[in-house]
Amino acid sequence: xxxxxxxxxxGFEDLLNxxxxxxxxLCRNTLQQQEEFICTACRLALPExxxxxxxxxxxxxxxxxxxxxxxxxxxxxxxxxxGKTQRVIHALKYRGHKELGHVLGRWYGxxxxxxxxxxxxxxxxxxxxxxxxxxxQRGYNQSDWFAMGLSEALEIPWSDQALMRTHYTLSQTGKxxxxxxxxxxxxxxxxxxxxxxxxxxxLVDDVLTTGATLEACxxxxxxxxxxxxxxxxxxxxx
Length: 238
Known about the structure:
By secondary structure, the chain is α/β, with parallel strands linked by helices.
């Protein structure tokens, strides 16, 4: 029955694409079969960091030095203002394309599994939570969708029940590092310490800038006796 269901779904999607072809989010050319959100040409042109391959310094490593202990900090893409990555992140966060986060997570997850053996180093994947009011407003947490994609590719459990955001904070955009830290340093709490205790946690967010939000989340996880915390983001500023 599952096979029949997949065939019906595939046929319906093919028919839908025939009459309503989907454009690539970046170049607006029509997506071909098996392409998701971004065409192959644009995907190959995305500014990947390659950090997990040792091709560059670990993104944000110096931003966490002497503050919290993290095992690694990787970003999938470099973020530049008005660049391709910003357009992708904008589509994910503000245009309702939540499934795009899942796709990006799968793409990067496959790289991390085959090129870095990350699936052997992590017990649980956790996304940076949104405040319930922000979650209701947006309808979804973009970091969780990226985390779910990573979870599928890496075959590592994911949960949105590890961390919670206890205070509604203003947007971090435009703030300097000190202001960002003051904005988030007391807003995250581990829901159930036993759930994360002695586990190797992969903490996931959308964009790494100063690292204040991730630093605050990491501090909460470490205080709850997590064995270790590694960080992966969809993108990072240079």
